[in-house]
């Protein structure tokens, strides 16, 4: 435990020691979760589950690999992705623990619910990507396939594509929790968010075009539309939280007046 000066400030070397400890726990959590994920991917058909959306469009329902190291590379990539997702609450908590001495009490109360909500929303976005978005996308893309074309999809390329889509959808699903946290901290209001609706719509499709793989407009639409929809949901959540903050402020005013009297 790092010591503090009489003024409540931590010396620079103690800051470094605290940072070293937080990094140690973060890297340790990532390593442990990745090893557990590797064991799961190695012993259970996790890759088959990831390949489920594209199987109906493949000859014999199988992906191919073109390099001897591809199978182990795929397992490692999936294991690292699952390990990072599983360890992310610990990593974010360690970051919060390092920064918490500089936060005000009302800011500290926001952090832990935000961590839990962000993790749940990330898993929800990744699940929706595999369960609904990717099958619908493949249904549209393969509708242009002619009889003279035979799909031969590399497992390595497909897994990279699937991981990117899961990260993209999981990342975009963080928008409501981010705006909710900013509203709870008093940094944004529903009216300010509503004023930027047009800007948010344009920005949603710009972000979607950057983070989605490939250069097809259909992929941008598949992520851009839900992203803007999440912005609208965020405005509603922000309005609910803002109203609650206003009611709490009106309730606290008489108490403050009595205390001062």
TrEMBL record:
It is a multi-pass membrane protein. GO terms for molecular function: proton motive force dependent protein transmembrane transporter activity. Its main location: membrane. Keywords: Cell membrane, Membrane, Protein transport, Translocation, Transmembrane, Transmembrane helix, Transport. Forms a complex with TatA. InterPro entries: TatC. HAMAP family: TatC. GO terms for biological process: intracellular protein transmembrane transport; protein transport by the Tat complex. The chain crosses the membrane at residues 23-44, 72-98, 110-138, 158-188, 225-241. Part of the twin-arginine translocation (Tat) system that transports large folded proteins containing a characteristic twin-arginine motif in their signal peptide across membranes. It comes from the Bacteria. GO terms for cellular component: TAT protein transport complex. Pfam families: TatC. This is Sec-independent protein translocase protein TatC. It is found in: Cell membrane; Membrane. Belongs to the TatC family.
